[in-house]
UniProtKB/TrEMBL annotation:
Cellular component GO terms, alphabetical: extracellular region
Protein name listed in UniProt: L-ascorbate oxidase
Pfam family, any one: Cu-oxidase
InterPro entries: Cu-oxidase-like_N, Cu-oxidase_2nd, Cu-oxidase_C, Cu-oxidase_fam, Cu_oxidase_CS, Cu_oxidase_Cu_BS, Cupredoxin, CuRO_3_AAO
Record has Disulfide bond as a keyword: yes
Complex formation: Dimer.
Subcellular localization: Secreted
Catalytic activity: 4 L-ascorbate + O2 = 4 monodehydro-L-ascorbate radical + 2 H2O
Keywords: Copper, Disulfide bond, Metal-binding, Oxidoreductase, Repeat, Secreted
Family of this protein: Belongs to the multicopper oxidase family.
Length: 575
């Protein structure tokens, strides 16, 4: 059988073409249609022992894991059973080649799914790897609407690393206030911050001290909040697919006494390196190999700690259970405390270690056609606290961009060109801005089809003195090359020469920009559609930290009527 990879290409090839080459190497007979039928509903559940409303899929949070093979077509029939609330689901990391209307981004690629209605998402999973899905409407992800996507290689094709068992780890942070209360506070004058989470969840399970629950229903013996147990057989190797669906927190994940070998991230093979603990940011996925090679007469902690923000949340815990020990037998030691929460250099160094695996390197174009620099700042607009890029705070239009651009409804959003840089010579990223005022806009960046685009993410001080936050940025519809990270202000003359990796850069769909630092990425605008690019922290995107790219919309086929109906698209919908 043909191998499903392109080894050590001498030139470069775009991810768009790469996807088709990979899929075409798979015999058509091996591709299948995977069908799922989901209902999204509110449920009373107790993920951390305190009962609250969650948004669940078929009664579960996290939702069902989508299992498919490379080249398969996935069809998900989603019924919105929330009764009084819209919804939409984004398939994070799936590039939606040829199906931009199935990206699931309300306001960008579709109208929301109305209460009681059913929407059918249909797309091809063109590349193996670990991906996620989650709500992309309001702040519903924070309420529990999320899950995993596992895409395996076709039968008979092996990966470049060996393991005995494949396991899933989904990480999340958890609040007791509803997402509606959180959103209302973020939109209020005076501003009400969501604060730190009450608990951290591993595969949907955490722990909250019920003595602090007040009048809320809280039961520490509820089986819904018993620690997740990962049972291992001594001597065996486990592939752990670790995903962060965090709404706010940057995480550090550690298995007590065990090293982890990083082998994959966001669907791309990594040149293996060993870590004691793994830093993972919202929207990222990693595969690590863990060998059950420690003393087998006891169990061990799997620990989840907050980094980059001063923690005010207990460590999230699971049990790494050595068979045949009892799965509920608590380890005799204290859980790992993780690295110092404010050790930015430690986290930056781990980011710099992530490179493409030898034999699976897809070199980027050596030059770029366009450079867009995005300054990440916290601002005020008419008394409201907002996040912005280049002093513009993003707002979604009532008519989704894909529909508006395809049908030339240009009056539905701003036609002005958003700024491509900031005043680098006069802006001090290490201080609070002298003038924090910004403006709203729903303008889009128009990209020439098949052009190469560099994005420089520049971090800065927020409106809080001596504070710069980690921002994980996610690009829809594409993978990008991570060219480099660095501290301080990006130097457009020297940093590309001295700090860019054009030899074996990793490709990802989500990457962090560290406090007071910069991150440079490169992608080819070769996937016709309209694609969001935004901070994956739920509250930050809600508060305006994002942009939208348009590329080759004229090449997009006829749009399905099912995505229409809102804003000025209501007259386009055909029943």
């Amino acid at each position: 059988m043909a191998r499903c990879r392109v080894p050590l290409l001498s030139g470069w090839i775009t991810p768009f073409i790469m996807g088709f080459l990979l899929c075409m190497s798979i015999p058509l007979a091996s591709a299948k249609v995977r069908r799922y039928r989901w209902e999204v509903t509110y449920e009373l559940q107790s993920p951390d022992c305190l009962e609250k409303l969650v948004i669940a899929i078929n009664g579960r949070t996290p939702g069902p894991t989508i299992m498919a093979q490379q080249g398969d077509t996935v069809i998900v029939e989603v019924k919105n059973g929330l009764l009084t609330e819209n919804t939409a689901i984004h398939w994070h990391g799936i590039r939606q080649i040829g199906t931009p209307w199935s990206d699931g981004t309300e306001g960008v690629t579709q109208c929301p799914i109305l209460p009681g209605e059913t929407f059918i998402y249909k797309f091809v999973v063109d590349r193996p790897g670990t991906y996620i899905y989650h709500a992309h409407y309001g702040m519903q992800r924070s309420a529990g609407l999320y899950g995993s996507i596992h895409v395996s290689l076709p039968d008979g094709i092996s990966e470049p690393f060996a393991y005995d068992y494949d396991r899933n780890i989904v990480l999340n942070d958890w609040w007791h206030k509803t997402t509606h209360e959180q959103a209302a506070g973020l939109s209020s004058i005076p501003f009400v911050w969501v604060k730190e989470p009450q608990s951290l969840l591993i595969n949907g399970r955490g722990w909250f001290n019920c003595s602090q629950a007040g009048t809320a229903v809280c039961n520490s013996t509820n089986p819904q909040c018993s620690p997740f147990v990962l049972t291992v057989v001594p001597g065996k190797t486990y592939r752990l697919r670790i995903s962060s669906l965090a709404s706010l927190s940057a995480f550090n994940f550690e298995i007590e006494g065990h090293n982890m070998t990083v082998v994959e991230t966001d669907g791309h093979y990594v040149e293996p390196f060993v870590v004691k603990n793994l830093n993972i940011y919202s929207g990222e996925t990693y595969s690590v190999l863990v060998v059950a090679d420690q003393e087998p007469s006891r169990n061990y902690w799997a620990a989840l700690n907050v980094v980059s923000r001063k923690p005010d949340t207990p460590t999230g815990l699971a049990i790494f259970n050595y068979y045949p020990n009892h799965p509920r037998r608590r380890p005799p030691t204290a859980p790992p405390a993780g690295p110092l929460w404010n050790d930015t250099e430690y986290r930056l160094n781990q980011s710099l270690k992530i490179r493409a695996r030898r034999g699976y390197v897809y070199p980027p174009p050596t030059t770029t056609d366009r450079v867009i620099t995005l300054l990440n700042t916290q601002n005020r607009i008419d008394g409201h606290t907002r996040w912005a890029v280049n002093n513009i705070s993003f707002t979604l239009p009532h008519t989704p961009y894909l529909i508006a651009l395809k049908h030339k409804l240009h009056h539905t959003f701003s036609q002005s060109a958003p700024p491509e840089t900031y005043d680098r010579a006069n802006y001090d990223i290490f201080k609070q801005a002298a003038n924090p005022n910004a403006t709203y806009s729903d303008a889009v960046y128009r990209l020439k089809f098949n052009s190469t685009v560099d994005i420089i993410l520049q971090n800065a001080n927020s409106m809080v003195p001596n504070n710069s936050e980690t921002h994980p940025w996610h690009l829809h519809g594409h993978d990008f090359w991570v060219l480099g990270h660095g501290p301080g202000v990006f130097d457009p003359v020297n940093d590309p020469l001295r700090k860019y990796n054009l030899v074996d850069p990793i490709m990802k769909n989500t990457v962090a920009v560290h406090p007071y630092g910069w991150t440079a990425i490169r992608f080819v605008a070769d996937n016709p559609g309209v694609w969001a690019f935004h901070c994956h922290i739920e509250s930050h995107f809600f508060m305006g930290m994002g942009i939208v790219f348009e590329e080759g919309v004229e090449r997009v086929g006829r749009l399905p009527a099912a995505i229409m109906g809102c804003g000025d698209s209501h007259h386009l919908r055909r029943h």
